[in-house]
Amino acid sequence: MAFNHRHLIDLSEYSAEDITLILDIAERFREVNERRIKKVPTLKGYTVVNMFNEPSTRTRSSFEIAEKRLSCDTLNFGGSSTSTVKGESLLDTVRTLCSYKIDLIVVRDKHAGVPYQVAQASGVPVIDAGDGKHQHPTQALLDLYTMRKRFGAIEGLHVGIVGDIGHSRVCGSLIPALKTMGAEVTVIGPPTLMPAMPELLGADHVTSDFDAALPQLDVVYMLRIQRERLEGAPFPSLREYNLLFGLTREREKLMKPDAIVCHPGPLNRGVELDDYMADHLERSEILDQVYAGVLVRMASLYLLLGGTDHGVDA
Amino acid sequence: MNEGGNVKSVCMDEREIDRSLTRIAHQILEANKGAGNIALVGIVTRGDLLAKRLAERIGAIEGVEVPLGRLDISLYRDDFATYFSPEVHSTQIPFDIDGKTIVLVDDVLFTGRTIRAALDALMDIGRPACVQLAVLVDRGHRQLPIRADFVGKNVPSSLEENVRLFLDEVDGVSAVEILSLAPGDRAHAAPIGEKEGE
């Protein structure tokens, strides 16, 4: 079993074997997270920088928890407290940090492509924690983990991704990864929230008719309506959006009996889904997704920092 | 082709392994005055199978079922940076180890580093009353102050050799073999199922 990636930036470069390995190791880390002492010494002495240049609650906190449970030293960095507000370029900041002999950088940025640049400037492994509208690979991995945990396999599942497809970096990682793993993907949303060329997403079907698509889906993946990115008024009102594309108690009747609901968070209750569906005991996987976030991030750190002699079997 | 090197000799066959395990089972019971407070924890990937065999023997002798667990030490290794394997196995210890006498079980005792890692892993799970060590083979060359309480067979070996256990359950054959090690290779356990591919 070999793992030959230096960075986790573009999930479409990962094969089905690579993704399966990450999910398998994440599964092993579940046991560590359920102990009384939720910590192992594996990455003792490694220093990881969490560079979050855009607000984040769950991604940032779950990376930090994952790092601490593997005994990494962490440096949290970003926002208005850094030298970038004094005019230093991002890449100069990265080079400065690298002088401290750090081992890995986790990057979140509002501009697509920043993780690539950080990877080139730093020379250390980089994990993309979300860049602009481009990718969010660890989110996709935790989604895949959640789906596999619930259904046993991802191959053959029909996953519908609903909502703000055009602004979504979750889609950028999740759709290619689902296709790699053999799932069928339908993207659903108003045409005004689709990218200009939806066929480039790689999904099998593109539709604006939620009610027609819903009965076929095993996984109903609701995206957040990103109010902060809606300057162009793509739909008349949040209420109208909720009526056409919200997952509601009424609409649940159209779902398969064992279909599940996923959401990357944070939730806009009453917009993309109502309280009943968000808190549904059988269908809602939303909090399991959050837990899976720690597990797949531990697995990603473990594999990317794993020694120099990749692929040795012990 | 056997990537562990060429077989130089077979130092224990199936019946010798059986006899050693039976003796160790008796010794564990004698040293602990019965099976009352003991639990067996085998180190993945073959110590866990030996622990299972020992538990069956102890059960047959004393008529009690001793708690049995498996311990993976890959997250506790001291050579993560130079000798990385992406394989992480699972630790399963389905009982409370606090206050118990834990008998750690491993196949080959060599440098002692695996046992050091296993002790750390065990202490993160709980606080046993005491920890004892049972191994099928002690091949010497310790790098840490660690010794076994119960030993199947002492096998003097050189550092240019690899000592490997194969077990019927996963390898299709049970034997302890001494193999010659190619220059630069490290001694380590055989991958599960390697024998079957030959």
Concise account of the structure shown:
The complex is a heterodimer of chains A (314) and B (198). Helix content of chain A is 35%, strand content 14%.
Characterization of this structure:
The complex is a heterodimer of chains A (314) and B (198). With 314 residues, chain A is α/β, with parallel strands linked by helices. In chain A, 35% of the residues lie in helices and 14% in strands. The longest helix of chain A is centred in the last third of the chain and has 19 residues. By secondary structure, chain B is of the alpha/beta class. Chain B is built from four helices and eight strands. In chain B, the strands form two sheets. Chain B has a five-stranded parallel beta sheet. The model of chain B has no long low-confidence stretch (mean pLDDT 89). At the A-B interface, helix 1 of A face helix 3 of B.
Task: List the main descriptive attributes of the protein structure presented here.
heterodimer; A: 314 residues; Rossmann fold; 10 helices; disordered C terminus; B: 198 residues; alpha/beta; three-stranded antiparallel beta sheet
